[in-house]
Structure formats: C-alpha cells, structure tokens
Records
---
Amino acid sequence: MSTDYQIPGRVPEDGTPRQAVSDYWRDRYTSEPYYDNQLFFDDYEPAYQIGHTARAQDMIRAYEEIEGELESRWAKERGKSRLEWAQARSAVRRGWEEAVNLDPQRNSRG
C-alpha cells in the first residue's frame, strides 16, 4: 500500500505515523504463527492498521470487549485484502497488542 494509505473517511488519531505501523509489520509479519505464504503483506496490512487504530481510539476496553466491532470494521475497511475475518482476526489482534510497543504511552490493558 502507498505511504499515504488511510481508511477512507478516517484520520489517524494515535500520533503514530501510519508508515511506522506498516514498516513495523512489514519486517515481522512472515514470522507470525498465522502467516500464510500464499498471501502478501498487502493482505495483512489493513488488519494491523485496524487493530492499531482501534487500540489508540479505545484504550479503556479489553480486546475481547470490542472484537465484534472489529469484525464489522474489517468487513467494511479491508479494502482489497484477500483475508476473511477468520484469517484476519489474529493479525487485527496483533496490531492491537503491538500498538503499545509502537507507542509506549499506550495503556497496556487488553
């Protein structure tokens, strides 16, 4: 995806540059246990972005509390990703979890 990729109608509000999130995951996604070598980074990137953005927007609730909302977001915001929710779920969760590492000021709950 291009460096200026952004979900239509949404402005990143987490203070972490979108390219930093993409670069972080581009270096790591092939090491994740859910990685499928038939898929490309462009398939996974929207899932990482959704998870990261959700964490930035909702630091109070635990992941389990918003997973249903994230599934709905995935259906609307996945773009050209070939992942179905069952495949994207783990990447969304990892994007959520790693938001703390990309911005240490984030709440570590979840």
---
Amino acid sequence: MAEKPNSNFKVVADNRKARYHYEIGETYEAGLVLTGTEVKSLRTGRSTIAESYASVDNAGEIWLINANIPEYHSGNRFNHEPKRHRKLLLKQREIAKLSQGVAREGMTIVPLKLFFNEKGRAKLEIALAKGKQLHDKRETEKQRDWNREKSRLMKQRD
C-alpha cells in the first residue's frame, strides 16, 4: 500500500456534546485572532471549547466567548488571560448569514472543533445550530443505540 502523506492537520479541542444538545445546520471555518503564548499553549493540546459559544456584536464582528486556552507554562509576564474574548475572522457574507440566523428564534453559534490546518494556522469550526428539546435528545440516543446494536449483530452474523 502507498503511504499517506504526513499531514499537519491536528485537532486541538473537540466539542462532542454540541452534536447531542444542538441540531447542527451550516458549518463554517473561522480564523482566530490569537497572541503568541495562546498559539504555543494550543500546540500542547490542553484547551477546551465545551462551554464556549460565539456572539455577534453591534459592530458586525463575531467573538468567541468562554473558550479556555490555559496559560503557557513558559510564558512570563506577557502571558495571556485564559478565558478572554477572541475575535473570529470570517468573510462579510458569512458574518451576515450568521447574524441573521442568530436574530431568528432559537439559533445560536456553536464552536465544534478547534484545530490547526495544513498551513499550521489555528482554525475554529463553528456552526449555526438550534437547541434540541428533550424528546429530540432521546430520539438521538435511541438511534445511536440501535446503530451500535445493528453493527454488533452484523459482526456476529459474519
């Protein structure tokens, strides 16, 4: 077999609960405005985006709120604040779509994955999502259990 080329793509943080709590709509890839110590801390892979969300301000900018990027252990007095608001870099058309979706009832901007792309740049995958009701969450759980059981039965049959 041919060897796969070595890719620099590295997932730093994944928000797995988002797919359970929200119905995911359109997804976008956004850049982040970060300081040097934040990038170094991200490369160690210890950040979390589970409790974070994105918000549109009056100036037409989107900000990532409550994402935890811990302080860099070798950073001295120039270290960053772990839970500061971080600006997201998107095209104007994408910002307009997201702000219109948030203006509608029940829609929110949810971060799904924080990663480094092939060029080594930190990117955030965000989605326009709608919160699920309790019965929708139960249905998702039933479907996931049934798929797991189905694959188990197929393995036994072979």
---
Amino acid sequence: MVLLGGAAGAATAVDVSPATTPQQADMVDVATLAPGFVLDMRYAGQDNFTGRVVPGYEAPRCYLLQPVAAALARVQRSLQAQGMALQLYDCYRPVRSVKAFVAWVHDPADQVAKPRYYPNVDKRTLLDGYIAETSGHSRGATVDLGLLDCRGGDCTALDMGTGFDRFDPLAHTASPDISAAQAHNRRLLLDAMQAEGFANYPMEWWHFTFKPEPTPDTAYDFPVR
C-alpha cells in the first residue's frame, strides 16, 4: 500500500539517494537474518491492486535498512517461540514503483482488480489516505505483513478480517466491524511488532513503520532484484 510520507497528514519531502544496490543503501535481505519468513511479495507478481507486476519489482525479496531488518528478525524469532511466523507482503519499495501506483490511480479505465481489492471504494478517492506521491516504504523502514499459525506443522494465515491491501474501512486496525477472533489476531500482530519498535498505520492492519526511522529524509530507487 502506498501511504502518505508523514504519519497521517501531508507527505514528507525526501531526497532520493543515488544508491543503485541494497549494499550502497545499507539495506539487507531480511530472509538472511532469521529463518521461517514466508515471502508473499505481491508487487513482484500480478496478485495486487494493479493486477500486474509493478515496475521496480524484479524479484520477490524483502529489503529493509539494516536496523529495521534486525528488529523484524527479532519479531520473527519471538513469534516462532510461540509457534507463529510472519508472512511478508511488501518491504522496501522503489520510488519508481510509487510513481507507477500514482499513475495507476489517474487511469480511471483500469479497474481490473477492483472486485478483489477495492469493491466498495471509488478508485478516484484512493488518493485520500491510501495512495500518495511519497511512501514510507521507499525509505526502507516500513513493512507490510501478516501472521501465520505454524503450531500444526504447516503454516496457515490467521484470519485478520480482510486480505492485504484491501482498500476498505474494514481494514482499519481498530475496525469495530470485525469478529472478536479477528480483532484478537490483529492484536497479536500489533503487540509483537510494537515490542520491537514498529508503529502501526491505523488505516491498515498490516502496515508498520520502525521508529525512529534511520533515514527519514531519504528515499531510495534501486530495483528489487
């Protein structure tokens, strides 16, 4: 999900780093820091709100700035001790990918993924709180994820009330319209992430940003590969 650069208001102006690789940006592949992450990187495939592979995503990998990745690995290890694991949907997002999302919003004829991702929302309203011209993901400190129950051997996704990237009030973290079990599952994820310094975006149960951000004024644009 493309979110406003600030906490919930006007977008924050950032400089784009000249880094052309994760190493130059001091980012690491989180899968190398802890076992058991399930990668479901939606923008590297067609199962996302645009219905196609998003420019900038050439591989299903999760890069984050080193201290952010280390914190996420701690969350993973803590959850694994409870028989659970993290399912990753999106991590670092190139600036070019954010621009592709904004261009998609401005194309009213492209509604291919509406039934799955925004059936109750007019696409023209998505710039209000959902999609913006800057994204915390591009700063390498924001991650979209879900929670898996692995206590039975095979890992299965916990019911969160909506799927990832559902543009709908039902996806608000504290939505009053979800079941008690769904609210409990959201709280499990929220508590695990907050314990390691991640703050949730209230409009999306899956969206978390590490605080304080290591490079709050710098975005990155190297491709995910």
